[in-house]
Specification:
The complex is a heterodimer of chains A (about 280) and B (about 325).
Chain A (H helix, E strand, L loop, with lengths): L8 H30 L3 H9 L2 H34 L5 H8 L1 H4 L2 H12 L6 H6 L8 H11 L3 H13 L2 H8 L4 H30 L2 H7 L8 H10 L2 H32 L10
Chain B lengths: L5 H18 L3 H11 L5 H26 L10 H12 L2 H34 L5 H7 L2 H4 L2 H12 L7 H8 L7 H26 L2 H9 L4 H30 L2 H6 L10 H10 L3 H36 L1
Helix pairs in contact in B: 4-15, 5-10, 5-12, 8-10, 10-12, 11-12, 12-15, 14-15
The chains are: A mainly alpha (about 280), B mainly alpha (about 325).
Chain lengths: ~280, ~325
């Protein structure tokens, strides 16, 4: 039986066809190109490109930066969600909008603000120089810029999740004599752990892949490159070898994003209902 | 409306409490009753850390940028001279050309995403076809993929020398895509696509089928139903998604570095200009351009919020 809400067959095919063509062109094709180009010079070149000094330093830098940023933003996300969901206070709506600022601001501006604070002509520039503390063009600067860009990821996912769960169970635990830590670890954490993991995965993907903010604060210091910056360096080095190295490193980040997508989907299908829980 | 929704009920209880706070002559008592609502532990700890971290990572650095645009330096020893330089930079031909490029192309990309995002969201919610779940998952690729990786790949596709598509396009039609504004447009379209789809999907899923059925009963054909019934219901979400994609495109840098040649006045985007100013040690100029971008993002956020506000009110009114 043809229902009133069924679209004509032609419209359906056109819609699906247009969508598939668009996604093939914009999404599938670039992904395929990275894999093809990475292995174009053979698996041996691929492995040697990845084990080259610059690649290894960049991979280590990316991992170390993510290792600092993700826990920081996760603790922040849990604290922010706890205070926003469980308590009433003045300026709550303002706080929620302030948390979202980094989503709106260009990543380059996110790097720029730290350059203006810690750079040579920045607010703390002379003081840092006289005390020989290096923040810009070094690890701390990269961590700060990455933390800025990935700032809201955990909090934004957790707030709606915890709002939906309410405070009743925590209050019940309190009447049964639980203290603060017991309350959090035994009652709240088991309820939000998948949401926390979800936020951490997204935060990690962005932290490892961030380019704009980091390129401002990392400058062009050779051994202070993260993977995305090193990809650009290889690309600018020109020549077929540089290009192949760039694609080899890019293929690692591609694996990271594939893993991110897989875990994200697994969490959405199994533990979190997507419509109520979309951080983007 | 006979059944009061829990949301409304809650508001009904909350509003009188707030009024009591406002009217009560003794602040001590109001304070006590507010504290009584804080039953769970950890208020000071969590809110304290939240505000501290927010200030350290976001608010103070942004404040430093704002302050930089009015603070005298050795080069500009007066507030007016600093402001003058900021305004000079903000309205410089090179800057204005970069705004035109950034905003124009982001707008075009957002429109393209609006069309294809609407089609994709509709197909993914309403139709069933093999591989639907995988395709739905693939929409998130631009969210998960680092922008520099995307930029590198797109450059390799569209480059005129040995590009997968670019070389043929150049040989057959003489078109150049990489290193021209077209390349930037493609990169921005890639970046913005999921914003439109993911904003539209829940709204399309929530459309009541009965409304379409009654439209059909009242004699509307399918096109009339689309334009008069479905489109009005989803257009706030569509606008929001397009604005989100637009906002993301304006600030985008990572993918464009690769696919644009960054020629001043022609293919130079605003974020790139900020980095150039920093390299030239013109911190005031960089701060000025940063301020322009901040104001633009603020305008975009305000527009999105206004769209959502009016959409919510219109819905409320209809009920």
């Amino acid at each position: 039986m043809k229902r009133a809400t069924t679209d004509p067959l032609l419209a359906r095919y056109l819609c699906i066809g247009a969508m598939l063509a668009f996604m093939l062109f914009f999404l599938v094709f670039p992904v395929a190109v990275i894999l093809i180009e990475a292995f174009r010079k053979g698996i041996e070149f691929y492995l040697s490109a990845l084990s080259a000094h610059h690649s290894v330093t960049a991979i280590r830098m990316t991992l170390v930066v993510a290792l600092a940023v993700v826990p920081l933003n996760t603790v922040f996300g849990i604290c922010a969600a706890w205070s926003i969901v469980h308590f009433e206070f003045r300026g709550k709506a303002l706080l929620i909008s302030l948390i979202e600022i980094p989503l709106w601001v260009s990543p380059v501006v996110g790097g720029l603000v730290f350059a203006l604070v810690f750079g040579k002509q920045g607010w703390l520039g002379t003081w840092l120089e006289s005390h020989q503390i290096q923040i810009l063009f070094a690890y701390p600067g990269i961590v700060l810029a990455t933390a800025f860009v990935t700032f809201p990821f955990v909090a934004r996912g957790l707030i709606p999740l915890m709002l939906a769960q309410g405070s009743a169970e925590e209050e019940a635990a309190l009447t049964l004599g639980a203290n603060g830590w017991q309350l959090f670890w035994r009652v709240t954490f088991p309820k939000i752990k998948w949401g926390v993991l979800y936020g951490m995965i997204l935060c990690n993907a962005r932290a490892m892949g961030e380019f704009g903010a980091v390129s401002v604060v990392a400058g062009s210091v050779d051994d202070k490159m993260t993977m995305p910056l090193q990809i650009e360096q290889y690309y600018l080095a020109l020549g077929p070898e540089g290009l192949a190295s760039a694609f080899a490193l890019a293929s690692l980040l591609l694996v990271l994003s594939a893993a991110t997508l897989a875990i994200k989907l697994g969490l959405e299908w199994r533990h979190l209902a997507p419509p109520a829980f979309r951080p983007h | 409306m006979n059944a009061v929704s829990p949301l409304v009920k809650k508001r009904y209880i909350l509003i009188p409490v707030e009024t009591v706070h406002g009217q009560h002559p003794e602040p001590a008592r109001a304070e006590r009753s507010r504290r009584r609502r804080r039953i769970l532990p950890g208020f000071r700890l969590t809110l304290g850390f939240t505000i501290f971290y927010l200030s350290a990572i976001v608010l103070l650095p942004l404040g430093a940028l704002l302050l930089k645009t009015v603070t005298p330096t050795e080069e500009y020893p007066g507030v007016l001279q600093v402001l003058g330089h900021v305004i000079d930079i903000a309205f410089d031909t090179r800057s204005v050309d970069s705004y035109r490029l950034s905003f124009g192309l982001s707008f075009a990309a957002a429109m393209l995403n609006g069309v294809f995002g609407l089609i994709a969201a509709w197909a993914l919610i309403r139709y069933s076809f093999p591989g639907k779940k995988i395709i739905d998952a693939m929409v998130d690729i631009p969210f998960a993929m680092p922008t520099s990786v995307a930029g590198l790949a797109l450059t390799q596709v569209f480059s005129t020398k040995g590009g997968y598509i670019g070389q043929s396009l150049h040989e057959w039609f003489g078109w150049r895509i990489a290193y021209t504004p077209w390349g930037i447009l493609i990169a921005l379209t890639f970046i913005g696509f999921p914003f439109v789809v993911r904003t539209l999907q829940p709204v399309i899923a929530e459309l009541a089928v009965e409304v379409e059925e009654s439209a059909a009963c009242l004699g509307a054909n399918r096109w009339q139903t689309y334009w008069r019934v479905i489109f009005p219901a989803i257009h706030p979400a569509l606008l929001t998604g397009v604005m989100l994609a637009f906002g993301r495109g304006v600030g985008e840098y990572g993918s464009i570095v690769f696919i644009s040649s960054m020629i001043p006045y022609r293919t130079e985007i605003t974020p790139q200009l900020i980095i150039i100013k920093l390299d030239e040690s013109d911190y005031v100029g960089a701060a000025g351009l940063g301020l322009v971008m901040l104001l633009m993002s603020f305008a975009i956020v305000t527009t999105v919020n206004a769209i959502q506000y009016f959409a919510a009110h219109r819905r409320g009114h209809r009920r």
